[in-house]
Structure prediction request, 537 residues.
Amino acid sequence: MTPARALRTIRTRWYVVAPVVLVVGGVLVPLVYLLVRALQAEPQTLWDLVVRTRNLRLLGNTVGLAAGVLVGTTAIAFPLAWLTTRTDLRGKGLLTLLGVLPLAVPGYVMAYVLLSTTGSYGTLAQVAGVVWPRLDGFDGALIALSLSTYPYLFLNLRTALQGLDPALEESARSLGYGPWQTFGRVVLPQLGPGFLSGGLLVGLHVLGDFGVVSLMRFETFSYALYLQYTASYDRIYAACLALMLLALTLAVLVLEARLLRGLLLHRTGSGTARASRPHRLGAWRWAGYAFGGGVALASVGLPAATVGHWMTDLAAGGIPWDRLGTSLWASVSASAPAALLAAALALPVAYLGVRYESDWTRAVERVAYLGYATPPLAFALALIVFTLGVLPFGYQTLGLLVAAYALHFMAEAIGPIRSALYQAPPHLEEAARSLGRSPLGAFASVTLPLVRRGLLVSVAFVFLSAMKELPITFLLAPIGFETLAMGVWSYAEEAMFAEAAPYALTIMFFSACFVGLLLVRERASTRVPTETGTTAA
Prediction:
């Protein structure tokens, strides 16, 4: 089908066009409106707001924290990925699980754990009598973000190492390269795409983080944006901060795209890649176990033990089940409809990208991913400015919060749906059309059942991401609406660590469900059909 004919066909299907228009408008219009709002200031006023010395300090803090977290996550993720893929270490499956489990501990929960563990009244002081200096500021934010985000890099580097062709290393060794030269000239370049993909996720997470830096009292663009909005409500300066944060994010995206442009790392000769031979660690295996155990203890064991300790203290005085239940219901009542809406919007976007691939359908997907890449506070502020100016009746309503969740996390829903659509043969839909079904009827009766698994995974992904979301909830939630994430943050900010424990434990439970779903999905994707029609890992 030619692009012109495909475009004519799509225009006749309102049930595809309408959600796509809603997605593009919902993401782009608030951002454009934010830009227009900032430009309403006098040129001199706008210039003074942009070139403030404080903005330069915020830029240095933000970039410095992102760079530090990239170094910290690399120092954790790369050795762990190497141990679980390229060595003869036993228990690699358990190490892999422990390397992914920190995804169940949101950054602000990790910050709460570090703050409640250290200091004169921390867990270490109460239990072991050891007074560790309070971890806050840059150091606290660096450790909390590194421990909570390294799995993103670990998963990407692990996948890259599993796909590395050992013949390349053998060829380099046959040419006289030593082990370190082979590693530097052959292995590291092959890991470049995996590092850039994982590093991009880590960088975007750090740039948009609010919970960790606010609890650690380290002022970055996100924290300053929140303070500016809540303290003085200077809309113009807040809009400028949001746009500067968005510009920094776009610069990271452009840099990653340029580094990947024209990169080719696949085989060009005949034959197929084979599995690599594991490196024998010998006596060094104990160092490997110590490293993996230390990482697991810091990123999983410490949060679990700390939350358990404070829960024990709280249980003596009574757990506030009513308030906890109210917060849980608030989280579910916003996250569940947002997950369904995100999947409903992602389905036509993915359908266009798979069935009618072209430059403009790829542009629509990029817009959807832009909503995810936009820092949450900047995205929320853009929706606030747009809503107050155009739809004031929607300000601080549950509907606006649900829409913000759906538009921001919709990119997480596109991937599983798109993968399912690639596996759904289009000729089945065409056959249904030839039997008299309408386009919508053919899709509903043939294609939709085939992508049901992808839809369920998409709904689960968005639901659990929305359950953990903090900055968007703070700015857009209705008055008196407190989610689990807000409960953790508000109590931890006041150093009421025991009161924050049940909220943190509930979030960790739901996040662990997300990690389990991720691991099940990864295991299912590695199963391949055999000649007898069964599957094998």
Summary: DSSP finds 25 helices and two strands in the chain. Residues 1-40+336-475 form a domain with the MetI-like fold fold (CATH 1.10.3720.10).
